[in-house]
Amino acid sequence: MSGLKLNLLTAAIVAAALSAAANASAKTVKVTLHAKEVDLPIDNKGTMYRAWTFDGKVPGPLVRVTQGDTVDFTLVNDPANKNSHAMDFHAAQLDVVKDFGSVKPGESKHYTFTAHYPGVFYYHCGADPMIQHIAHGMFGAIIVDPGDPHAMPKADREYVLIQSEVYPNPDDVDSLMADKWKNVVFNFGVFKYDPVHDSNATKWLQAKPGERVRIYFVNAGPNEFSSFHPIAGIWDRVYPGGNPRNAVYGLQSMTVGPGDAATFDLVSPVEGANAIVTHSLRSALSGAIAVIMFTKDADAKMGRGEQIIVR
Prior knowledge:
This protein is mainly beta. It contains 4 helices and 19 strands. It folds into 2 domains: 89 residues, Immunoglobulin-like (Sandwich), CATH 2.60.40.420; 152 residues, Cupredoxins -  blue copper proteins (Immunoglobulin-like, Sandwich).
C-alpha cells in the first residue's frame, strides 16, 4: 500500500474514531426560558428601559452545549405579558413556521434540535415585528463547544459580549426601520464596562498578561454592523462563526454583521488596558466600549463560571 493511501486510511480511521467518541458522549440538555416583560437599567446611572427579556435579563441566559448534543427546549410566555413571543436559535436546523412560531401570553412552545456545528450562535425572539422584539432586548447567545476538546487552544478566561442598539422608543417601529438609535452598547448597558468614558461604571473585564482571553461576540443588531477591534491589542486568533475550522490569525479587526457572531482570542504580553470596541466610532462613542485590564493581580473569578457574562 502506498504511503499516500496509508495516510488517507489513517486519517479516515482517526476521524471515524473521533466521530464515534463524540456520538457516544452526546447528551440531551434541557433548556427552559421564560419570556418576561420588565423594566431594566440601561446605563450606569440606573435609567430604566422597558425590556422584553428571556428570564428577566438582557442578554438572556447563556446556553452552552457540546457539538452533537440534543437541546430539549421550552419557551414559556409569562401570563402577565402583553405580547406574543418566540425563540429563534441560530444553532438549530428546524421548521421556521412550526418551531419558531410565536406563542401568546400564558402559552408555551417546545421543540428539540441537535447542535451539529460548533461555534457561538445568536438566539433571539422571532415574533412579529422581529425588529421590535430585538430592540426591546430579547436576545442572547448559545455556545456549542467543539466535540474535539483540542480543536482550539485552551482559554484561560472567557467573556461573552453582545452588541445591540438602544432606541429611545422601541415601540416606534418606523424609527427602528429608519435606524434612529441613540446608543450602541455591549451587554445592554451604555459604557457598561468603561470607567474612562463613564465615571459611574464600576465593572470591567480582567485577565493576567499572557493569558488567552476568549471573547464570544454576538451582534444582536437589529441594524448596525460591528468592526470588532481591541484598541492597543491584536486578535491572536479569530474564528468566524466560532467554528474552529474557520480560524484566521493576527487580525486588527473583523466585521460582524447583525445576527452573526464570532469568537476572538486576545493575549496581551504586557500589563495595562485594552479597549474592545466597534471601530465604527459613532457607535463606540455612544456606548460600545469595554475595557479589559491586564494585571498580575486580576480577580480569579472574572471570565470564569457566572462571570463569563459580567452583569
